[in-house]
Design a protein that fits this description.
This protein is of the alpha/beta class. It has helices spanning 13-19, 41-54, 87-102, 126-139, 161-170, 184-190, 196-208, 227-240, 271-287, 304-310, 351-359, 373-388, 393-400, 404-407, 409-420, 435-438, 441-446; strands at residues 22-23, 36-37, 58-64, 66-67, 79-80, 110-118, 141-142, 149-154, 174-180, 213-220, 244-249, 291-294, 297-299, 315-317, 320-322, 328-332, 337-340, 343-347, 365-370, 390-392, 424-426, 430-433, 472-473.
């Protein structure tokens, strides 16, 4: 069992600064910058055929990109408009994609996981929500016994208790609330407003309606935040008692996300203050009884994420940590990314291109990648590290049908330096991430990334132009 409370973390500032590079979050491997345009429709069809033969359950994701107002920190693919009518043409395109994609998949395959993301998924009207879920239920095998993990992201500042009741009626049983911060000065600086009272009213309704799980997202590194202010927000959140918490590191990249220029850069906390905020937050949450799952995620001891990690079954996908790792993910909507058998494919990122493809009866795929044998090997290792923080070389050799230590000789040599610095424990039999190393797990995973590691014997050099990398700092 992994430790509940990482009480043995040594907050070595110099060491953290040395390893705190920019790097992937590893919701996939290979990561999105490696996807290529002009992806073959034949590769998609072949992957779907193998997927259907496997009989694996499905995970469905729907991207709804609209928001009423702009949150200045946001780097998501979204369209900000108060005109709700603008969602109607997009919803019509999404309904076309559902019908088109469903025809490609075996309709008997159960949908174990479903998620609406955005943007703000609750932007569309309640009747449109019903329409979208009815179309999904018509074309896919949704579970009617409330056993699936069916979740939706909501902005508490724009969601009514009645909408929560509609969501429960439609089959959603998990909520993810984007709280971010309760401090009024911070909220004004980032143009994101939701009071403690508003959130509590929704929490009460969610429990009344018997949602299975409630998650809250927070961000550290925003303007005017300090150790004291974030600690106050956390204390208020702890009273609300969510089942899961995410504490994301804000990445200030105004050259990539123009809306971030509307924030006062001088009001951002320093790197040293951010590190103190993270240290205080981890201690505060673990002392309140939450398990530090890893990276920026916390969960109660009896939560499915915690139990999956204890059993070595935790997985990671495009939505983050997950308990349904045996599903093929079919993602629909603009910019969404599917993981089907051995391919990743991403839809067009702009609505005109996305809708034009569907109007022609074509799948709206813009780019993707076929995973090589080496990709699949490294994906398994990175997933094991980022979810369970250790690799048993003999077990992994058997699973991958190769000699782990020989295949990854260069990577293990590189990790010897990590071992000297106390981030990992490296023996002839296993690699184990220490409590200190858990803070820098993304950097440890980068050692196994053939696209980032030129010293690997399997290093990959992608041909042609590659999308500019937009990785955030690790901490």
């Amino acid at each position: 069992m992994l430790p509940n409370k990482p009480s043995h973390i040594h907050w070595n500032r110099e060491l953290i600064r040395r390893y705190d590079l920019s790097g992937p979050r590893y919701t996939s491997y290979p990561t999105a910058p490696q996807f290529r345009e002009g992806f073959s429709e034949m590769d998609v069809e072949a992957a779907i055929a193998r997927s259907n033969t496997s009989g694996r359950p499905l995970s469905l994701y729907f991207h709804i990109p609209f928001c009423d107002t702009i949150c200045y920190y946001c780097g998501c693919n979204k369209i900000v408009t108060a005109n709700k009518a603008r969602a109607r043409p997009y919803l019509d395109s999404l309904l076309k994609e559902i019908e088109l994609r469903a025809a490609q998949f075996d309709s008997s395959r159960p949908v174990n996981q479903l998620h609406w993301g955005g943007g703000t998924p609750t932007y569309i009207s309640d009747d449109e929500k019903r329409e979208l879920m009815a179309a999904t239920r018509k074309h896919f095998n949704l579970l009617d016994d409330d056993s699936g993990e069916y979740s939706i992201e909501i902005h508490p500042g724009g969601t009514t208790p009645e909408t929560l009741r509609v969501l429960r009626e439609l089959g959603f049983n998990r909520l993810s609330m984007g709280v971010q911060d309760f401090d009024p000065q911070v909220q004004k600086a980032v143009n994101r407003f939701n009071s403690v009272e508003e959130v509590k009213a929704l929490v009460d309704v969610a429990r009344e309606e018997k949602f299975h799980s409630l998650s809250m997202d927070l961000i550290y590194g925003l303007p005017h935040q300090s150790v004291e202010s974030v600690s106050r927000t956390l204390a208020q959140v702890i009273v609300l008692n969510p089942d899961r918490l995410s504490l994301f590191n804000y990445a200030h990249m105004p050259h990539l996300f123009k809306t971030q220029k509307q924030m006062d850069e001088n009001a951002l906390p320093s790197a040293e203050e951010k590190l103190k905020i993270l240290e205080t937050a981890i201690n505060q949450l673990t002392e309140a009884g939450y398990v530090y799952i890893g990276m920026d995620h916390f969960a109660k001891p009896d939560d499915d994420l915690t139990i999956a990690q204890e059993h070595g079954e935790l997985q990671r996908n495009f939505q983050g940590y997950a308990t349904h790792g045996n599903c093929d993910m079919l993602a629909m909507g603009v910019s969404s990314i599917s993981a089907i058998d051995n391919i990743f494919v991403q839809n067009f990122k702009d609505i005109p291109s996305y809708s034009a493809a569907l109007d022609k009866g074509l799948t709206p795929i813009n780019k993707g990648i076929v995973l090589s044998k080496d990709d699949l090997v490294r994906q398994t290792v990175i997933n094991q590290l980022i979810c369970n923080f250790e690799v048993n070389f003999r077990h992994m050799s058997q699973k991958l049908e190769l000699d782990f230590c020989e295949y990854f000789a260069d990577e293990l040599d590189q990790l010897a330096d990590f071992a000297v610095d106390g981030l990992v424990k490296l023996t002839p039999s296993y690699l184990k991430v220490t409590d200190d190393g858990r803070l820098l797990i993304r950097r440890i995973c980068m050692a196994f990334d053939a696209y980032l590691n030129p010293n690997s014997r399997q290093a990959v050099k992608m041909p042609g132009e590659v999308e500019p990398v937009r990785y955030s700092k690790i901490i």
